[in-house]
Amino acid sequence: MNHFKPDISQMVSPFLLLYIIHATQIGEGILSFERQIASIAGFDAWISIILTGVLTTIIIVVIWKIIGDQQRDFMDIHQYMFGNILGKIFTFIFGLYLLTVSVIVLISYIEIIQIWFFPDMSIYFFLFVLFVLIIYICLGGFRTVVGFAFFSFFVTAFLAIFKYEAFAAGHVHNLLPVFNTPFKDIILAIEPMSFSFLGIELILIYAPFIHRFQSGLKWAISSNILTTSVYLFSAIALFIYYNDQQIQLISWPTLQLWKVINFPIVERFEYVGIGLHFIAIIATSCLYFWASIQCFHRLTNFSFRKMSIFFSLIGFSSIFFIHNFLMIEKITTFISRAGVILLFAYIPLLYLCHKIVSGVKKKHANN
Amino acid sequence: MIRKKNSNIQKKNKQPKKDINSFNDLLPMMEKSDDFKHLILGSTKNIEIFYYQSLINMEKIEVSLFGKLEDAKVDNLDVLENLLPFSEAEITEDIKIIEEKLLTGFIAVKFINNSQNVLLIPAKFEADRDVSQPEIEFSVLGPKLAFIEDLNTNINLIRKRIKLPQLHVKSLQVGKITKTDISIVFIDGIANPDNVDIIEQRISAVEYDQIMDSSFIAQMISDNSQSPFPQLMDTERPDRVSSALVEGKIAIVVDGSPHVLIAPTTLVEFFASYEDYFLSWHIASAFRIIRIFAVIFSVLITPMYVAVLTYHYHIVPGDLLGTLISSRKDIPFPPILEALILELTIELLREAGARLPTKIGQTIGIVGGIVIGTAAVEAGLTSNVLLILIALAALASFTTPIYRMGNTIRLLRFPFIIFAQMWGLIGIFISIMFLITHLLRLTSLGRPFLEPLYPPRWRDFKDAVIRLPFSVQGARPIITTPKDKNRINLARTNAKRARRK
């Protein structure tokens, strides 16, 4: 079977998986996930973060098993297993999912900007400029997209330091006693938590772009561990800073925490923080956008350039349909649920099918 | 762009061109120029001499050539060649060589008979200035030599530092009309042959009528000619070029240009002064960090001022806000206009200073900097805080050792200011993202421009943002993909072994 092989000048070293995966996982979620998990599992929700980390690590191993030694991507696997037409339909749905994520990540962050910075900002021109930026990044090829993600990694790492304020002013006994909530709730909190871990499904698209892909597993797992510890650190910081009624009332607990920080020349750190975190948001959105264009590009063989301009127009026009807060919230919930199903149901299922199909085919070949 | 115009060759052939087959065809064209001289000498008046008066050294010729030919009784060029005391003389009938040599300061000697053979005698008139101090990349410590406008002198300055038979020079000629000599200099066995091939292929593909300076070549052969960032380093210091050659880079020397190009290069190298290697490594690293900080400061400070004072005055702590407000309370303009006016004033001062002779330039600096600045603040047109910031930003932009990069840095802030006016801090971050993406997309000879930052190559950090001591500089940079990866055998160098024997 003839596999897709990208140009060597677009391939990156496996070590960069550490940054790519971390950058796709950390998006808008880190500003608000504490509220969502605390509403289900209370202040024992940090256990759910560890559990989710373990589960996603297993999924990463499964993805590595699916891709195998031949470095196939999602399109090859789909066609190999479901035949030409059905495989293409599945890939198309997956591409649509990626495009929606990339647009919704942008739009929901613009909402934060509108609330904190410019309540009466015209969103149309702003989004237009952002899509120009995204196209500019994506047309630079996979290396540029990864390069951008690489720099965004340091931005989020830098911002994570500023959670120190919570430890300075918080009460550690907020977390005690441990296991106060029923174990069932801790399990249930895994679902909202895994929204924040979404991003590992992209490996299926960019796998052929990684040199010596098989050796990248250790970097992917360390990236996931890194993300888990960033979330854990962030959650514990906020849990000891707020009490559990208060955290339910705040949409973006991290931003409220940043408000307290002040320096001799910066009094309201959250303005700088929102601006810096915007880089991480663009990196996430860009990786998703690139992956969706790559999907469609592989399906249709139209030029990458035309496809990205076309789909960015579609993404841009989506702003005419999404015009209020509730709608954004609804779509976000829907798409995250789809992502979780994809991650924890579809990918393991795909692995099982793949095992069976390749076993059968091998048997046929032997006969 | 220009180098892709090869497809036009067919069009060119359509132009009617009179064939020049012999020396006699060439003469009518050359004789139209008044400085083209035609003499007839010899005892039997059978020797013709042709030369361009403006190109040759008359003193040398009058004694050793005219004196001997005045009454010479020869009728054979070979005899004549042995008779004359010139080592580089040659006999040829190739019309192309004759034309080229005549135009570079040779004298053509010919007998009046049917023979087409011409004896060419070198008598070049050198009108180049002496080798002098570097003016742009001046350094307090270390050698103080700079390249001049002559190709051979420049290569001589490089060869003096690298006494190695492996130092190769490849000569090319570019420019349809100017026929400028260009030499590609590299060390065989260290430089990657792919890089040499790329440069040679790109330079020989240049289609343009005039090449007056190395910057013409730099703009034509750089990977992305639309970018404001220089992608080839240009320097006037022979020590910098020699050191780059030893690292496996390739130098391009252009005749008539005191700047030599080096490729491939990276962004951080533009902020490294060669003086860094003359200082101890802690001090050099500190200076480099200061320079990089200066660049960031220079690009961001005015946009920050505009963004903060237009939209986000809550960011500024109360005490500082008081100072800002009191300095701005009488200003009739919004911050953006105030910033643009002052920025343009500074740019005007710089431009005027650069065009004027040194003495008048200083006067302009004092008039502009002190008189206009103070008057503008006292008249209430600009705030004195902004005046301080903009003057500092201008000062910071001049710390970049490579002048070309300094220009880019200075103009970069204008889009930033406009974005800051549109969306405040978010606008600044958007423009930062555009800038990062642009830098990520740039390449120098196909190698990433942001290396070693991205792709991250920790080994190359030894000489990038900081400069580590020589004892850890054992390997050549990865960016040049040198054939010989190691400078020295680190295992055999142990500086402390010699102590106290």
Number of domains as seen in the coordinates of chain A: 1
Secondary structure: number of strands of chain B: 12
Strand order of the largest sheet of chain B: 1-2-4-5-3
* Helix content class of chain B: 40-55%
What is the assembly state of the chains in this entry?
A: heterodimer
Elements of chain A, N to C (H/E): HHHHHHHHHHHHHHHHH
Structural class of chain A: mainly alpha
Region (Disordered) (chain B): 1-21
Organism (chain B): Gracilibacillus orientalis
Membrane topology (chain B): Multi-pass membrane protein
Keywords (chain B): Membrane, Transmembrane, Transmembrane helix
Topology:
The complex is a heterodimer of chains A (367) and B (501).
Chain A: H1 17-25, H2 29-41, H3 45-67, H4 74-82, H5 84-116, H6 123-139, H7 142-161, H8 164-169, H9 183-188, H10 190-195, H11 203-206, H12 217-241, H13 246-249, H14 253-260, H15 269-300, H16 304-317, H17 325-366
Helix pairs in contact in A: 1-7, 1-12, 1-15, 3-12, 3-17, 4-5, 5-15, 5-17, 6-15, 6-16, 7-15, 14-15, 15-16
Chain B: H1 9-14, H2 23-31, E1 36-41, E2 47-52, H3 58-69, H4 77-83, E3 90-92, H5 95-102, E4 106-111, E5 118-122, H6 151-161, E6 167-174, E7 180-187, H7 193-204, H8 214-221, E8 233-235, H9 238-246, E9 250-254, E10 260-263, H10 281-310, H11 318-328, H12 335-355, H13 358-378, H14 384-397, H15 403-441, E11 443-444, E12 447-448
Antiparallel strand pairs in B: 1-2, 2-4, 3-5, 4-5, 6-7, 7-9, 8-10, 9-10, 11-12
Helix pairs in contact in B: 6-9, 10-14, 10-15, 12-13, 12-14
